[in-house]
């Protein structure tokens, strides 16, 4: 009979140990999965306002990945995927200004300063990083709003980009049609990363 | 009318005609509806270019080409106010094919359910983590219940 109780005790101990192990593995794997979030259909739009004409273009397939643990953010977009009101604007943009056949992508790599992934309330944070477009890389500091909804994060904001900084040459004849500084809006609805 | 004026009028008319012609040519948008696809490919093969670096397919596929993709619907959404269909390969996991649909496709797309078989024609824009297509239209669809 004592053997029975000892065996039962050993079995109970082993079960507790295994249960604890499995719970730990489950929590750990969940955290690993939840460490990154991704937006496959991020939105980036730019606006150029001049007295001659207003130009607006948007890209709705921008890729954004955020590492929740370190606040690192990486963004990549196809320059030829911008949609314009007029086809001629798109043609000028791709062929003459950003030369999208030579420089097909624009990227941003940076870090969200003081980012707290666990904070449920909205956060306004500075994102510091390098923005590369048309073969030119510039350091940027962008103010971004971060909303945390369940497991998702919505990152949005606006910044100004100086056209000349990216060595985009505008012919003198069209100089009046394009603003020297364009306003850029972005919005990324990031979901848990799946590979 | 003196010859000099005649020449001037002719030059002006020619200039206007050239500018008008250039304007029409310049504003001409790729017409996916009335243009046949340059490449027809399955979603699985298209994604293999990205997943396995399928060089043969990669060489035959260029950005701005009109491509018709046959695949299964992963999901449809209206994110950013755009009608979007995500196509998947053989399994449910990424990468996907992101198809930005033309506005008049809304009714057709609204009837799609996950795993429906479809053929979508659009302008291939390139790869990020997924393949991106713009100006897409549905050329075939079949519900798979």
Structure characterization notes:
The complex is a heterodimer of chains A (195) and B (145). Chain A has 195 residues and is an alpha+beta fold. Chain A folds into two domains: 1-34; 35-192, Lipid/polyisoprenoid-binding, YceI-like (Lipocalin, Beta Barrel), CATH 2.40.128.110. Chain A contains two helices and nine strands; from the N terminus they run αββββαβββββ. Chain A has helices at 2-34, 87-97, and strands at 36-49, 54-67, 72-78, 83-84, 105-112, 123-133, 136-149, 152-162, 181-192. In chain A, a hairpin with a 2-residue loop joins strand 6 (123-133) and strand 7. The radius of gyration of chain A is 24 Å and the shape is elongated. The model of chain A is unreliable at 25-29 (pLDDT under 50). Chain B has 145 residues and is of the alpha/beta class. Chain B has two domains: 1-29; 39-142, Nucleic acid-binding proteins (OB fold (Dihydrolipoamide Acetyltransferase, E2P)), CATH 2.40.50.140. In chain B, strands 2-3-4-6-5 form a five-stranded mixed barrel. In chain B, strand 5 and strand 6 (131-142) form a beta hairpin. Chain B is elongated. Mean pLDDT of chain B is 86; it is low at 20-28. At the A-B interface, strand 1, strand 2, strand 3 and helix 2 of A face helix 1 of B.
CATH topology title of the largest domain in chain B = OB fold (Dihydrolipoamide Acetyltransferase, E2P)
If helices are DSSP runs of H or I spanning 4 or more residues, what is the number of helices of chain B?
A: 4
By DSSP, the count of extended strands of chain A is 9
Uncertain residue ranges of chain A: 25-29
Number of helices, counting only DSSP H or I runs of 4 residues or more of chain A: 2
Give me the secondary-structure topology.
The complex is a heterodimer of chains A (195) and B (145).
Chain A: H1 2-34, E1 36-49, E2 54-67, E3 72-78, E4 83-84, H2 87-97, E5 105-112, E6 123-133, E7 136-149, E8 152-162, E9 181-192
Antiparallel strand pairs in A: 1-2, 1-9, 2-3, 2-4, 3-5, 5-6, 6-7, 7-8, 8-9
Chain B: H1 3-27, E1 39-42, H2 43-51, H3 55-60, E2 66-77, E3 84-88, E4 97-101, H4 106-110, E5 117-127, E6 131-142
Parallel strand pairs in B: 1-2, 4-6
Antiparallel strand pairs in B: 2-3, 2-5, 3-4, 5-6
